[in-house]
Amino acid sequence: MSEKILIIGANGQIGTELVTTLRNIHGTDAVIASDINTPADASHQNGPFEIANVLDKDNLHQLFEKYRPTQVYLLAAILSAIGEQKPKMAWDLNMTGLLQVLDLAVEFKVTKVFWPSSIAVFGPHSPQQQTPQYCVMDPNTVYGFSKLAGERWCEYYHAKYGLDVRSLRYPGLIGWKANPGGGTTDYAVHIFHEALKTGKYQGFLSAETALPMMYMNDAIRATISLMDAPAEALTIRSSYNLAGISFTPTQLAAEIKKHIPNFEIGYIENDPRQAIADSWPKSIDDSYAHKDWGWNIEYDLQKMTADMLENLKNIA
Ligand code: AKB
């Protein structure tokens, strides 16, 4: 069957890379990128692009009617740090956007839906080391509890309407093609840009704050592997834990120093993102992803750092 894939929120950190990868697999015209703004990245303009606002149901309905997508990726979201500045807006966008897309997916008989969750679904009472798939979950950020509620809705639509919805709990994502926007893990991208530009970086999380992270190449591969997995292999319809690599700012800075020996890191104190980071897992157990759809990471801290610096140097 030939696919028609609609990506909503295509201009963001994940969307920018996913559009290119899916177009390489399925052909340019098979992938419709959409976002609330026209893309800064010209690569989207090489294929179909539509302005779409997830909060505007009529607008979304027209989009589904026009393209009759077989697969939908809903990537539009407000992340953790911005979510704390605009809590009601974050809840509205993250929740209403999801429910509208799930309803339209049922109405238009979409074959598969992808929706990203996050390690932010865990909270201060969740085990912080090797956080398991199933445990106490008491997220205390709007982003975190909108993702947790969203996971429940995904499982519900699968059970009640048979919608084939699939999801991953992404760790902090690190890539060179697009910048993240408004998250707690963003430092791990900004540090590379500053290391190359100025040789210095002022981190907003403390030196020993460990968080689960993942290189974008692995995140895109995980997303496509999950979407390609046979439906009967999937035992989780809320969202799969995805571990990646866990490191602290000190460890990342030490790795960068191997390539840029004069690199220096400093730390800003009392940033509100510290409390968010402290409530999240330090490492994740993703054994369900290994077991159900054969997941394995390729990029460790060393390989990711080398690849990030190499690619950023080439585009500078
Ligand atoms: C954030 O920091 O808010 C995101 C996430 C971990 O979901 N990168």
From TrEMBL:
Belongs to the NAD(P)-dependent epimerase/dehydratase family. PANTHER family: L-THREONINE 3-DEHYDROGENASE (PTHR42687), L-THREONINE 3-DEHYDROGENASE, MITOCHONDRIAL (PTHR42687:SF1). This is Nucleoside-diphosphate-sugar epimerase. It comes from Mucilaginibacter frigoritolerans. InterPro entries: Epimerase_deHydtase, NAD(P)-bd_dom_sf, NAD(P)_epim/dehydratase. Residues 5-235 form the NAD-dependent epimerase/dehydratase domain. GO terms for biological process: L-threonine catabolic process. One of its GO terms (molecular function) is L-threonine 3-dehydrogenase activity.
